[in-house]
Amino acid sequence: MLETMMCALITVLPDYLFRRYVQGKRIGHEITLFTMWYELRWGLTTCAILALTVITTLFYFHPASKTAASYFRTVTILPQLGGRVSEVYVRNNELVTAGQPIFRIEDFTQTAQVESAHAQIAQVQASLKVAETDLAEADAGIAGARAALAQSLEDLERNTTLRDEGSSAVRLAEIDRLENLVAERKAQVVASESKRAAVVQQIEELIPAQLASANAQLDAALTELDKTVINAGVTGRIEQFGLQVGDYVSPLLRPAGILVPSSSGHNRFQAAFNQLSAQVIKPGMIGELGCMTKPFTVIPMVVVEVQDVIPSGQIRPSDELRDVQANKVPGSILVYMEPLYESMAEDIPPGSNCLANVYTDNHERLEHEDLGFWESAFLHVVDTIGVVHAAGLRLRLILMPVNTLVLTGH
């Protein structure tokens, strides 16, 4: 409407003034409702052509979007284990910090596993003390066996010396008995040393391995016990949380609620523009934003990123070939925008419905490039008509409360 009115000022109005003051035709006489087309045909035709040209140029070089919003991420509150709720620590719509407990499920099985792991560790530690006693006993056995062996060797040596000297006091049967006794005592020393080595190996290798295994079982049991307490993963606000003691929750079937992170969705907006804007919208372009949650306010924005794919072309492997004609509605160009100045959009709630404009700026080209007259004039026109789009955005923001509260009744 604004574009048509502006074009009429330089087309229909001069045509009417020519008819009125040059040709002397008057409204209600020569210019009537029935003769208006014939009398003002040049102005009306030129106005229509010029208005279409201006509107096309305006919307191409200064794209607008009615579907801009600040999307935010939600985190589903789910336990890692299924079970009945035994304690609830927070209430709905409460602000929680990262790591704060939310609720706890029954932990009878997990507590029993922890106690069993502690008992296993105590048993291994007791076996270590028993092994240390066995080691002292083995050392004493080795000392006794070596002493008995030394005594037997002395007796054998004394009797052998007497036999070699030809003494009649020595019997050959006694020497044979002592030799057998020495062999027996040597075997006892070897057996005592082997027993000690087995005890040492038990103390140095077997019992530490058993203790490590018991500690690992304790860690696993404590991990399972920790899973019964559900903590907040991020700082945010609890929503749709109506959990009561005795309710059954499951990681697959029964979520407990939703956690909305405090940092998600603020100061970053997403706007969808038509595909004709793909070659126009670039990162760094200046734009404006107006939201229903903050009427009568225009927020300067800057384009920070443009999604390089169009969602309507997305496919997923299935058992059916996709027909391209099924895309009835062409996809949009997704543009990410942020406030040009800090703290200008802090009070806009995430998820707000907004209007967005982005503006083509040819100032750098006009300032530094050597352009021809017509190209320079065209770029000046493109930059100038952006004011019309800015005025249109402000007009829509002014009429937004009226349209929403009065005309639509929402």
Structural class: alpha+beta
CATH superfamily grouping of the largest domain: Efflux pump adaptor protein, beta barrel domain
The unreliable regions are: none
Number of strands: 14
Number of helices: 8
Could you say what the CATH topology of the largest domain is called?
Answer: Elongation Factor Tu (Ef-tu), domain 3
Kindly report the average pLDDT value: 84
Order of helices and strands: HHHHEEEEEHHEEEEEEEEEHH
What's the story with the biggest beta sheet? 6 strands, antiparallel, barrel
Strand content: 15-25%
Distance between the termini: 26 Å
- Gross morphology is rod-shaped
Could you explain the architecture of this structure?
By secondary structure, the chain is of the alpha+beta class. It has helices at residues 2-9, 12-22, 36-39, 41-61, 108-164, 172-226, 363-368, 373-407, and strands spanning 64-69, 75-77, 83-88, 95-96, 101-105, 229-231, 236-239, 248-249, 257-261, 269-273, 286-291, 294-306, 333-339, 353-359. It folds into four domains: 1-58, no CATH class; 62-72 and 265-314 and 327-410, Beta Barrel (Elongation Factor Tu (Ef-tu), domain 3), CATH 2.40.30; 75-105 and 229-261, OB fold (Dihydrolipoamide Acetyltransferase, E2P) (Beta Barrel), CATH 2.40.50.100; 108-219. It is built from eight helices and 14 strands. The strands form three sheets. Strands 1-10-13-12-11-14 form a six-stranded antiparallel beta barrel. A four-stranded antiparallel beta sheet has the order 2-9-7-4, with no helix packed on it. A four-stranded antiparallel beta sheet has the order 6-5-3-8, with no helix packed on it.
